[in-house]
Design a protein that fits this description.
8-stranded mixed β-sheet; 11 helices; transferase; SAM-dependent_MTases_sf
């Protein structure tokens, strides 16, 4: 995985959410959470695995809504942040955080109703391996997002300390086909990249986001979107 050592440091874990989801980044947090909720659907008693759960912002949210959920991550520091978040939300008894390798999931076949990963595949050196493992342990559904090759992110991607793996739709369709997954739905969003929103105050980000959404809803919106949310079913 790209930047694995960087990602696991205590300093990164402690500052992760403040750096990404404050200021204009709050818009990103809300949109990503809504994308997960829309894709997964009813949560009561659903058995869910989150890959690369990080600080648990999705894990805790789904536990609060009735899911039986396991959050898996390679970073012990990130998982500790997640456990603290779960304690504060009063759901520590309703979820489990585990340290583990997404390329070798410690679960039997068809163990979870839904398996999902957000902010993961852009760092994956071997995406086919990870998606195959997600498919193996999923009984019904696999959900994930990608950063897109034909987008503004490609302009500055080379400046990022870890870079990113950018995907075309054809790339994703091949990954799904190879993993025996059937694409059910896809949403495409964010003409402007995440990094732009994180740098500006929320009061400025809101009207810019309105313009961004207008472009997204236009005939060229899907083509230039920075992010895609993929909802696939097990064949």
């Amino acid at each position: 995985m790209k930047g694995a050592e960087w990602y696991q440091t205590d300093e990164v874990a402690e500052e992760y959410e403040e750096k990404r989801f404050s200021r204009g980044g709050r818009l990103i947090d809300r949109r990503e959470k809504q994308a997960v909720l829309d894709a997964i659907g009813p949560l009561e008693d659903k058995n869910v695995l989150e890959i690369a759960c990080g600080t648990g912002r999705f894990t805790v949210m789904l536990a609060e809504r009735g899911a039986d959920i396991v959050g898996l991550d390679i970073s012990a520091a990130m998982l500790q942040q997640g456990r603290q978040k779960a304690q504060s939300a009063g759901v520590a008894d309703h979820l489990e955080f585990m340290r583990g390798d997404a390329g070798r999931l410690p679960f039997p076949d068809d163990h979870f109703d839904t398996v999902f990963a957000m902010r993961f595949f852009h760092l994956a050196d071997t995406p086919a391996t990870f998606l195959s493992e997600m498919r193996r342990v999923a009984k019904e559904q696999v959900v994930f997002d990608t950063f897109n090759a034909r987008s503004t992110r490609s302009v500055y991607n080379w400046l990022l300390p870890m870079g990113s793996h950018l995907y075309t739709r054809a790339d994703v369709e091949k990954l799904l086909d190879d993993a025996d997954l059937r694409l059910v739905d896809a949403e495409h969003d964010w003409i402007l990249p995440y990094g732009f929103y994180r740098k500006i105050p929320g009061a400025i980000a809101d009207p810019i986001r309105d313009v961004d959404t207008t472009i997204r809803d236009s005939p060229v919106g899907d083509y230039f979107a920075s992010v895609s949310y993929w909802n696939a079913r097990v064949e």
